[in-house]
Amino acid sequence: MKHLHILWTNADETTGKLMVMMYAKNAMENHWWDQVTVIVWGGTVKLLAQSPALQEEMAQAREWGVHFTGCIACAQELGAVEEMERLGVELYKWGPPLTELLQSGQPLLTI
C-alpha cells in the first residue's frame, strides 16, 4: 500500500489551502496514493482551530478519504485540544511515530 504522510508545520493559511489541502485531496481523488495522512503540528494546530476556511477544506479532504491527526502536546500548549477533537483530528504524541517514519524511509512530505 502506498501511504503518504504530510507533516504540516507551516502556519500560513494560503500554504495550507493551496498546497496541503489541495495536494491531499487531489492525491486521493486521482489515486496517486492509496492513503494520505496529514499530521497537524506546531502553529498549524492554532491556525486550523481558528480558520473556518481551512476547516471547510479539511472537511472536503476527508470526503476523499484523507485522514487528519495531530500533535497532542502542541494542542495542549496552544489550548486547542477541544477544538481539534471537535474537528475530528486524532491527537497523539507524534514524536516516536514520526521518528519511526523517518527511520523506515516511508514517504513523508514536510510543509
Provide tags for this entry.
111 residues; alpha/beta; 5-stranded parallel beta sheet; 5 strands; 54% helix; globular
Can you walk through the features of this model?
This protein is an alpha/beta fold and 111 residues long. The chain has helices spanning 13-29, 43-50, 52-63, 72-77, 81-87, 95-104; strands at 3-8, 35-40, 67-71, 90-92, 108-110. Strands 4-3-2-1-5 form a 5-stranded parallel β-sheet, sandwiched between helices. α1 (13-29) runs parallel beside α3 (52-63). The relative contact order is 0.22.
Instruction: Say how many strands there are.
Output: 5
What is the averaged pLDDT score?
97
Placed side by side, the strands forming the largest sheet appear as: 4-3-2-1-5
Taking all Cα atoms into account, the compactness measure Rg is 13 Å
- Helix % is 40-55%
